[in-house]
Structure formats: structure tokens, C-alpha cells
Amino acid sequence: MSQGTKWLHHLSKLSSANISSGLIEKGQNRVIDASLTLIRERAKLKGELLRALGGAKASATLLGVPLGHNSSFLQGPAFAPPRIREAIWCGSTNSSTEEGKELNDPRVLTDVGDVPIQEIRDCGVNDDKLMNIISESVKLVMEEEPLHPLILGGDHSISYPVVRAVSEKLGGPIDILHLDAHPDIYDAFEGNKYSHASSFARIMEGGYARRLLQVGLRSITTEGREQGRRFGVEQYEMRTFSRDRHELENLKLGEGVKGVYISIDVDCLDPAFAPGVSHIEPGGLSFRDVLNILHNLQANVVAADVVEFNPQRDTVDGMTAMVAAKLVRELTAKISK
């Protein structure tokens, strides 16, 4: 049982012991307000700086969402954001992306810190409220031009509140490119509507995406395929990747919608390239396969996430942290303008 879940049980006992629910809610609201204020003020500071510098139409802005309790197997992704940041700025490499953009230029990349997920859950906040807090945090970033959210997960359940926020803030549906070993489109995996295996069901039923392309699939059940057909998802499985490669390396998305969102689950990669994930599924994409898809994509990328890196399984000298950081670097180049 996680710490947040323990607190929910504890608060339930307090309520039954005649502790005012209003008192508990008041305390929760103070913590939520403080958490959102921190994100808001950081975003304002970075937005003001970039507007003063000028020359940037879009700056990729890191926002960590260290949530792991909606994982169906291991909860290690909650510890990923600081490890990814450490790897981004590791002295073993330089600050340039492959396309030549410099990450140490704030007009290319900024950072507004993390949503304090554990602190909020420690107050007994349930997942309905927590998802709203994540959405509100993303909107606070988007309110400050030219900031565009680049989310560091966390398990894949965070994609639902993030995509919801992006779609609502832009005023319409978006196209989504989703790279993953799994479709994450169960109706409610193990009874949890917010499971990391159900995030794209929530996105599609909410009408937040016009097109959803899922690439790298190689662990897909009958329900996954049925849900895909139900929502009109374009599912590309690894068993046919050699046939689909040309199409996937020449994608053009986003025409007629508000923009394109990219969601990368690190386990889209073959575990030979990224062993530090909770769900090790052989037969995946190579790292260069992923970069070819990203580099050749023709789209106005408005936001993105990198999720499901599990530092607790990253036992090979931090190799998967560097892989996640490289993905963040190249997504930064795709977002920043």
C-alpha cells in the first residue's frame, strides 16, 4: 500500500471519529493552492524572461509529474523526473540536439519544476482531484507564452490529464502520436479507470484527440484491439513494422486541428536499448527507429511527454536515464521554434 493510499485510509478513520470533513478539505485545499501557486509563479517568471529576450515562438518547458501509483506492476516511474533532468545535463555529452538546437538557450528549453504529487496525496487527495490538479498545472504553463509543456513522467496515467489540458486550452481536439509497447486503452484495467493501461481510453472517450496513432505495439490483447476499433485508433504493431516503416518515417499530422501531441513510453524501445522500464517486452523499436520517426514527422508539435522510465530497474550505469534524456532533447527540438 502506497503512502498516499495509507493516508486516505487514515483520513477515513478520522472522519468516522467525528473529525470534520470540512477541516480535512480545508487543509487539502491549502496544499493544492500552494502547489499550483508554485507552478504558476515559476511559469510566469520563465515566460517573462523569454518574452523579454524575444525571438521565441515556442519554448519546450519541462514539467515533472512524478506519479507512479497507477502502475499495474511497479511504481518506480514516480522517481524518474529528477533522474531524467540529471541525465539531460550530464557532462558526458553536450547541450546540442541532433538538429543543432542548444538546450542551454532558455528560448529552446526551460523548466518549471515538478507537480508535488506525493505531498498532495499525503493529504488524502483522491485521483479525481489529482487528475484535475495535473491538468490545471499544465494549463498554467500554457498561459505563459511562449511556453509549451514537455512532461516528465511518471507512469502513463498522466497522459490523460495532460492531453485533456492541452486540448481544452487550445480549444479543440489534437492529433496524437503515441509510441509504446502497449496500447494503454483498456476501459478500466483491474477496475482502475485511471490506470496507466487505460489513459488513452479516457482521452478518446473525452473527444480530446481527432487521430491517435499508436506505434511499436507488441503486447496487445483482444480488448486492446477491440477498443482500438471502437475509437478508430490507427494501431501499428511491431510484427508489421518492416512493411509500415516508410509510412511511419514520413508522417504528416495535425492538418485541420489545433496541433500534435507526442507521447513516448520508454518501453516502446526494445529492452536492449532501454532496460530500465517496468514492463520489459522484447521485440521493440531501435532508438534510431524512434528518432527517424520524430525527425521526419511533419507537424506542429504543441506538447509531449516521456513516461514509464523506471530508475529502480536502470541497473546498467544509468543507460535508460540517458535514453529518456535523449528523447527529451529531441522532443525539445521538435517543439521549440
Can you offer a commentary on this structure?
This protein is α/β, with parallel strands linked by helices and 337 residues long. The chain contains eleven helices and eight strands. It has helices spanning 3-16, 21-53, 80-88, 117-122, 127-142, 159-170, 199-205, 222-231, 241-248, 287-296, 319-335, and strands at 59-65, 109-114, 147-153, 174-179, 209-217, 234-237, 260-265, 301-307. It has an eight-stranded parallel β-sheet with strand order 2-1-3-8-7-4-5-6, sandwiched between helices. Helix 3 (80-88) crosses helix 11. The longest helix has 33 residues, at 21-53. It is globular and about 60 Å long. The model has no long low-confidence stretch (mean pLDDT 95). Pathway: Nitrogen metabolism; urea cycle; L-ornithine and urea from L-arginine: step 1/1.
Strand content: 15-25%
Strand order in the sheet with the most strands: 2-1-3-8-7-4-5-6
What structural class do the secondary elements suggest?
alpha/beta
Q: Tell me the helix content.
A: 40-55%
Number of helices: 11
Number of strands: 8
Unreliable runs: none
Global Rg: 19 Å
The major pleated sheet works out as: 8 strands, parallel
List keywords for this structure.
single chain; 337 residues; alpha/beta; eight-stranded parallel beta sheet; 11 helices; globular
